[in-house]
Amino acid sequence: MINRTNEEKTAQTAPKNVKRIALLAGLAFALLLSSSLIAGTAMATPGNGVTGTPVASGALPEPVRVKFKDEAGFGEGSEVSNITTIKYTVQPGGYFGWHQHGGPVWAVIASGTLTLYDGGDPTCTGQAYPAGSAFLDPGNHTHNARNETNQIVEVYATFMLPAGGPIRVDMPNPGVCPF
Q1: Exposed / middle / buried, residue 49 (Cβ in 10 Å: 0-12, 13-18, 19+)
Q2: 172 near 41, Cβ under 8 Å?
Q3: What is the DSSP letter of 3?
Q4: How many CB atoms lie within 10 A of CB 144?
Q5: Contacts within 8 Å (CB) and 24+ apart, 168-171
Q6: What is the pLDDT of residues 87-135, one digit of tens each?
Q7: Confidence (pTM)
Q8: What are the phi and psi torsion angles at 147 (to 5°)?
């Protein structure tokens, strides 16, 4: 029977440990690199020049199902549990960034003109909404809204959300507009 000293055992296993550490470090680096590439292709587009001030929020005693007619008809609808109203102030040149919502949103333009862009429109044709106008966002499509004027825009948005539904979901730039 051969008895080895601790120094001999350490000397013999050291090359194996170095190889393992190098392999693990390489795998960690590859994982980090691949995750940064994935994140780079799906980066959110944050807004700029927009501030939101909560006005009121409340929970319904029971969820209700709401249906809004679109090109395909009424569909399944959305279950709504929470109602939240936020006043947004958009500085000249400000924009919301590409995003979606967790449920339908009513938007009322109180002052200025807000231009809405649909992420599915390859022509990038904006729809301008002046003060006194309103629109419904169904909440399940990517869009961006911009203040393309030299006046401040004020918008009141009323969110109709399911339990735990997010007010905003950042989305990657769909690439349909030059901005």
Answers
A1: middle
A2: yes
A3: P
A4: 24
A5: 168/99, 168/100, 168/101, 169/99, 169/100, 169/101, 169/102, 170/44, 170/45, 170/46, 170/97, 170/98, 170/99, 171/44, 171/45, 171/98, 171/99, 171/100, 171/119, 171/142
A6: 999 999 999 999 999 999 999 999 999 999 999 999 999 999 999 999 9
A7: 0.74
A8: -100, 105
